[in-house]
Amino acid sequence: MPELQSKPSHKMGQTSQARQPIRESSLYYIWTIGCQMNKAESERLGSYLEQLGYQPTPITEEADLVVLNSCVVRQSAENRVVNKLNSLKSLKKLRPGVTLAVTGCLVDSEVDQLKNNFPQVDYFFKPGDCPEWLEKAEPAQVLPQHPAPSTFVPIIQGCNNFCSYCIVPYRRGRERSRPVEEITDEVKELVRRGTKEVTLLGQNVDSYGHDLPNQPNLADLLTELNTIDGLARIRFLTNHPKDMSTKLIEAIAYLDKVCEQISLPAQSGDNDILKAMRRGYTVEQYRQLITQIRNKIPGVALSTDVIVGFPSESNQQFQQTVNLLSELRFDTVHIAVYSPRPETIASREFEDNVPLAEKRKRLHIIEQLQEGIASEINARLLGKTVEVLVEGKKKGKWRGRTQSGKLVFFNNNNDWLGRLARIRIEKTSPWSLQGKIANRTN
Fold it and tell me: Is the pTM of this model over 0.70?
């Protein structure tokens, strides 16, 4: 059985500790915060640890190995990571033999500084990397052994856009696409193991393939995956408005397994703010893209991201964002309060001069607006029958999503996990739908 191997301390910030064989009773705990990419990487790391002989535990204090998969995209996320790390100091004192490791976007090139700040941590490794103290694995080895009905599949790492507020390119590096054949084989294996739906992941999925031989694009990959027997649905995120092509929009419209759901972050409704953010498009171009999508894909569900309180954002500029959201009426809006991130262009060039109270006020305004819009959109489904891929249970009710990504709950005594159910909607809210099994099911 593979052993934990210590490396010289100058590599990835690892400490020099004696090599210890993994015991059959060894337990691991992975704490994850942040984006879907983090969740996918934690899932695969957990799968590999189990193949090495570890067993999962939901209790941190019981674990022989604790891994923190971190996020620092917002200050609030970084604060949670730091608080979690500080809380583990007592565990390390109580049980010096426990191994603590940190990955995710907290880990940058300044590992020595991280080690000084968090001496209780034994290992740091960059997001998406295989820890050097574990044997390198073939991709099929780290796939979930018993994947969920809906599974994340990373297809491209990193980002080349360098939006002025974003730390991701500094932590995950430049764009690196995985070959079409590798992804296709992986999805086939996931389907063989029980997956019904995959969500393709990337910081910017629209850039997929430009760095590969023959330069395949996301539409080409979707076309290939659409032919896989046993795969019911395909989703992907996140798109960038300046990179989304007509070919991709047409692929979503015509490929039967690709869900009619698109995440398209706007970030602001004001052109001057968009320019300061280095987003690479104008409000007019964004609006035109939304019109093109809706004309080509009737009934498409659209979500967007918005940042409030970007440096020097005036009340009038914020109102432009409110006006855009009111006009375009998205199914979902993810709202973030701007916080300066070290190393980013915005942190170097702009003063964070919008008061926190004002940022929170603006966030609340958009939350209220979107709650009303989502209520009206979802209310249209009352009395309709929708097809739901059942992903699991929550508070005793079956839970799943429609083709357009609507969250649906229903009661039934049969085993629906991983199955497609036809649900008649009897109750709607801004956040989810509730219903009962219709007469016909698949």
Answer: yes
